[in-house]
Write a structure and sequence with these properties.
Number of strands: 15
Oligomer: single chain
Largest sheet: 9 strands, mixed
Distance between the termini: 37 Å
Structural class: alpha+beta
Number of domains: 2
CATH architecture of the largest domain: Alpha-Beta Barrel
Helix content: 25-40%
């Protein structure tokens, strides 16, 4: 077997052409599953997967919260991720780790003990992005779809990406790099595949993410509080940490369209592109229409 064609599937490495998942897998039948996308580099000292612990901790937390599995071990998973990259023969790779409900009839099974989820890890070439995207910024559209905070899977990185991909296709048809999603309450959520930050007066503002609700609630707002449908992004966390180290304050709160269009700067974050400047939303120019200084500083700190 060519090592460069191997993937990790349920505890062993197999040739990607021989990687088979049951037709009755809950991921195929019902879209039951989670995934993480990571970027890895191969150095003289070994494989370095960026923010791997944060990615695996998020996967473990979501799997337990959604009843998919409470037995995930992040240590062995991390070893399998690193070995998958090593076997790929690539100097840099984009790693996809997918966890599904496995070969399971969910309507006839109570509890999650005893069943085995499907775990698939694959390494692919890093997605190339033109330098112009980061030097000149991109346009973003406004998505038609809305995120529902009462959906218990919202705020988790589930396999349900169809609606997001449709919005991205529509955005690409307009020459945009992303599409910005609102909640059903018309508060900002983020990009289809990214988290959102705006720069206002030199400091950052970002929507409250799933799991952060209590941190920002007051006694008056805590009663009747609803969950956030915003994914707690790994790169988002890195931005907050790096910005803080540079003396740039970050505020997490509910945000509206005015926060977006009146911002001095806007940028989007995910693990693939890091920090992506947005200089226009539909027909509206953001700030001066050029990539702002705060965005440049944050991107340099996060991406290098």
């Amino acid at each position: 077997m060519s090592e460069t064609q191997s993937v990790f599937l349920n505890g062993e490495f197999v040739h990607r052409d021989d990687a088979r998942v049951s037709a009755f897998d809950a991921g195929f039948q019902h879209g039951v599953g989670l995934f993480e996308t990571m970027v890895a580099d191969v150095t003289p000292d070994g494989v370095v997967v960026r923010d791997m612990d944060a990615h695996l901790d998020r996967l473990q937390s979501s799997a337990a919260a959604l009843g998919l599995s409470d037995e995930l071990k992040t240590g062995p998973l991390g070893d399998a991720v690193a070995e998958t990259v090593k076997r790929s023969g690539m100097d840099a790779a984009r790693v996809r780790l997918t966890l599904t409900g496995g070969d399971l009839n969910m309507l006839q099974t109570t509890g999650r003990s005893g069943h085995q989820p499907t775990i698939l890890i694959q390494a692919n070439p890093v997605t190339p992005y033109p330098d112009e995207m980061f030097e000149n910024g991109v346009m973003a559209t406004l998505a038609q779809a809305r995120a529902n905070p009462l959906d218990p899977t919202a705020g988790h990185k589930t396999l349900n990406y169809w609606w997001r991909l449709r919005e991205l296709q529509a955005a690409a048809a307009k020459g945009a790099g992303e599409s910005i999603v609102f909640q059903v309450s018309n508060h900002l959520c983020g990009g289809c595949v990214s988290n959102l930050f705006v720069v206002d007066g030199g400091h950052l503002i970002t929507p409250i993410a799933q799991g952060e609700e209590d941190e920002h609630a007051t006694p008056e707002t805590r009663e009747g509080q609803i969950p956030s449908p915003v994914l707690p992004g790994v790169t988002r966390l890195r931005v907050v940490e790096k910005a803080g180290a540079m003396g740039i304050k970050t505020t997490k709160r509910m945000m509206t369209i005015d926060d977006l269009l009146d911002a001095d700067e806007v940028f989007l974050t995910n693990s693939s592109w890091g920090v992506l400047p947005v200089v226009r939303v539909e027909a509206e120019t953001i700030g001066s229409g050029a990539v702002g200084e705060v965005t440049k500083r944050v991107r340099e700190a996060v991406v290098g």
